[in-house]
Design a protein that fits this description.
Elements: H1 2-8, H2 13-24, H3 28-56, H4 60-84, H5 97-109, H6 112-127, H7 134-155, H8 160-163, H9 166-189
Helix pairs in contact: 1-6, 1-7, 2-3, 2-5, 2-7, 3-5, 3-6, 3-7, 4-6, 4-9, 6-7
Length: 190
């Protein structure tokens, strides 16, 4: 669950969208459901697919490890750059439920970073747990996703004033950069 949360909690396009919808109190249940279901499908698919691939080609884990470390380092750099130029969340005009759901689905399935986080990184971490425990790990990652998107979407309402501040986003982006860099180093040293 903690590994899943460490990757999912990072503020990216999908999480910013969920935050915006939560702050706006607009179709948040549908947004949370799309994000949770999408992450669950991708995490479980990554665990199943990578598991079959790793059984046949164990050297794939090494490729995934180095690719994951490079991605995490890039994400850390992007977070540090965002901290240097922070911005708040804009309100904007109301949107229809259909367009909000389409936006959530697009940010879930058309974002290559979501695939790297769920399918590649969490799938490879799950498969490092061994045949018997990989599904337990994947279940924990899915539970982390459910917990995160529920808390993010519904908790944003209570934190609307704080989350709209550029200063808060600077601190969030700095923390995310440190966490992602730490995860990259951990993957390299394994």
């Amino acid at each position: 669950m903690l590994s899943g949360l460490a990757l999912i909690v990072a503020i990216g396009a999908q999480n910013a969208f969920v935050l915006r919808q939560g702050i706006r109190r607009e179709h948040i249940g549908a947004v949370v459901a799309v994000c949770m279901a999408g992450d669950a499908a991708l995490i479980l698919g990554g665990t199943a697919g990578i598991g079959a691939l790793v059984t046949r080609f164990p050297e794939v884990l090494q490729v995934l490890r180095w690719g994951g470390a490079a991605y995490l380092a890039w994400f850390a750099a992007r977070s540090f750059l965002a901290a240097a130029r922070p911005s708040g969340l804009a309100q904007g005009a109301p949107r229809s439920k259909g367009s909000v759901i389409a936006g959530a689905a697009a940010l879930t399935f058309l974002n290559p970073h979501v695939y790297l986080d769920t399918v590649v990184l969490l799938g490879s971490l799950a498969n490092q747990q061994g045949q018997d425990l990989r599904w337990v790990f994947a279940g924990g990652a899915v539970a982390g996703s459910v917990l995160w998107f529920s808390a993010l979407g519904y908790g944003a309402r209570a934190l609307a004033d704080v989350l709209a501040s550029p200063r808060t986003w600077r601190l969030v982006d700095l923390a995310i950069g440190v966490i992602m860099l730490g995860l990259a180093v951990k993957l390299i040293l394994q």
